[in-house]
Amino acid sequence: MEQQLCPRFEKAMELISKRWVGLILFDLLEGPKRFSEMESDLPISGRLLSDRLKLLEKEGIVQRQIYSEFPVRVEYSLSEKGRALEPVIKEIQNWADAYITREEVEVKE
Amino acid sequence: MEQQLCPRFEKAMELISKRWVGLILFDLLEGPKRFSEMESDLPISGRLLSDRLKLLEKEGIVQRQIYSEFPVRVEYSLSEKGRALEPVIKEIQNWADAYITREEVEVKE
Question: Does the ipTM exceed 0.85?
Fold first, then answer.
């Protein structure tokens, strides 16, 4: 086995490739969101969404803002490190628009 | 559950997020390679590499060229659709260089 090809790239790939991380980034690039908003935006369970947000928080990609209102309001947003992934998400979107056919998508629905 | 956020983006994300696809693209962006070269470049088993290459062939991202020499030579390369992923890989590399710390990588080794 060759010594790691590019350790930093591998680590970034591992993170971005985690199921639903791409979609969560896609959603948060629209701006800060409450948990319930993300839950209704995304086709994943609340528990899994909460796990992924904790992971992304630990990785410094997402930050959680607690507003001491009544009831308390919690908002998730991308940190600087998170927003820096926007070009990656944009390039994936460009590629998808150019190369993923309607049939490939309809078959899935 | 909200209707799919962006079906094409989701399908692209699903494909790129498959374990080792990012690294295989990274490797093939250097140019056509034989199976044995890829096997020694990448930290994955031959069987898994073969599975991933079959998937990428089916998706039209990788193409296989057979040279009728003796012994026969088989080379893998990126198709046009595959090469069009270069900006995605480049942006991931840029992000990784800027935001993945040395410690995060050393801890893994």
Answer: yes
